[in-house]
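Suppose a colleague, Dr. K., hands you the sequence of a protein chain of 414 amino acids and asks what its three-dimensional shape might be. Before reaching for any lab equipment, you can write down a predicted structure in token form. Begin with the sequence itself:
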Amino acid sequence: MNQRNYTAVFLVMLTFFVISFMTNIIGPITPDIIKDFNLSLVLVALLPFAFFIAYGLFSLPTGILMEKYSPKIIMAAAFILSLCGSMLLVLFPNYLSAIISLFLIGAGMAMLQVIINPLLRVAGGEEHYAFNSVLAQLIFGLASFVSPLVYSYLVINGGNSNSVASGILSFVPAKLPWISIYFLFAVISVLMIIVVLSFKLPKVELKSDEKAGDLKAYLQLIKQPLVIAFFFGIFCYVGSEQVIANWMSQYLNVYYGYDPQTTGAKAVAYFWGLMTAGGVLGLLMVKIMDSRRVLIIFTFLAILSLTAALVLPGKVALVALPLTGFFASVMYPIIISLALNSVTQNHGVFAGILLTGIVGGAILPLITGWIGDMWGLKAGYCFLYLTLGYIMSVGFWAKPLVSNKTIQLFKKKA
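The predicted structure, expressed as tokens, is then:
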């Protein structure tokens, strides 16, 4: 049994918080970007596209680098990338800089995501890995909730000379107060580089299911229709999540007149907060019910919630859109577990294929933006009926070799 490295576990948890804090800010600032840079919905959708394409491009190479370099070097390099991306937008606030900035930040966040999971297993001990993973996801959700609120605080309190916000805003153009969140990202990146370099981290020995695998194994798997089907499950989930979160503030502003810097930002914060709460309920649900049934029920409720946001008055939409996060919370872990329990070998390679489905977060917001430019953002949101419908279908056609173990609440009579 490995001795637990509590300082390394703390660093991993802190890194989870920072990743989420820097990743899920695009939605709240979307209305400001559209207004200040005079963009169409398609052009603004290229921002999350750049971010998530970086995820897809950097995840696999980082897995290979992990076998050659220490976690400390990779994590420091990742935060240097996020620092460069953040400062680029602060120093040159324009649309092209924003594209490059989000690509660099996305690359850094992808590198961190790849390294911190095996690091958490080694530092916290394998026997505690399940608990630590759940705790990490709760911290991840907390940061997603906090991030839009911090943005809202910065832009609202910038005029108050006695506030922290005014000090941060002094480093960015007065007409672009939302840029201040990226200056804060730069400060956080510098602090994290210092913290990472000052910590002593354990050496990470990758298990067979954590290694990237060779090209032959990838080619063998992608020829299987079931593998492709599960890939599109992750593709649709990440894309749907990002479409709802990224366009929420803009949707509430355009159709119902809600202020994106206050009400819109809070709505996005509640979306991520409710997703965290839903994840806790989902953990309990899969203990008493087949995970496929949980997936079907929660996805159906997400579709109902989306429908309410599209056809009912603004006060309902203000609740219903964030509520979709609560119902979406179980989709990713259940699809991943169903997929991995449907094959008998090459789980590490299969997981790598599934994780490339994150590019759905790049492509689906772009499609939604194009539809929005043509027929309005409400029509763009209707595209989610296709993706959520596909996610629900997974619960019907998935045939895992091992089903999730459930607790029998009532014993059957002999």
